[in-house]
Write a sequence for this structure.
């Protein structure tokens, strides 16, 4: 004998309400709380040492000299006056805010390479005569 349409509807209604044999005779389990959102990793800040190592490797590529032949003349934490990192390019717009970073000068023979960097490790080799010094008193050695 087949159940009536009303009997099937009642079974479906009870099933959709979560009633069934599994919960018979006992309390319902507590709801599972939602998982907290995944923590977002903050970008790592580059250290003066890590940026100096990266700059030294770049200077070796640029000059064709071995890294051991290059001399770090100075490496300091500074504050740049804007997003150009003290090395503005023509027809470019930059963030007009103080930018903490680094200035690293590498001697390659008779030539001195002037690198400007942000705290995130982005760096530029500033051509001779184009560099703008960091803010006065902002250099930290």
């Amino acid at each position: 004998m087949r159940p009536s349409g009303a009997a099937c509807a009642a079974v479906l209604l009870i099933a959709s309400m979560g009633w069934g044999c599994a919960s018979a005779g006992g309390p319902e389990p507590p709801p599972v709380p939602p998982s907290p959102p995944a923590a977002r990793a903050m970008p790592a800040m580059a250290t003066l040492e890590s940026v100096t190592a990266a700059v030294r490797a770049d200077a070796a590529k640029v000059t064709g000299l071995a890294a051991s032949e290059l001399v770090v003349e100075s490496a300091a934490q500074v504050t740049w006056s804007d997003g150009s990192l003290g090395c503005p390019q023509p027809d470019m717009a930059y963030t007009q805010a103080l930018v903490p970073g680094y200035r690293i000068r590498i001697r390659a023979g008779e030539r001195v390479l002037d690198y400007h960097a942000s705290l995130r490790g982005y760096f530029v080799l500033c051509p001779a005569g184009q560099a703008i010094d960091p803010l006065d008193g902002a250099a930290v050695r």
Q: What stands out?
A: DSSP finds two helices and four strands in the chain. The first helix runs from residue 5 to 16. Residues 48-126 form one domain.
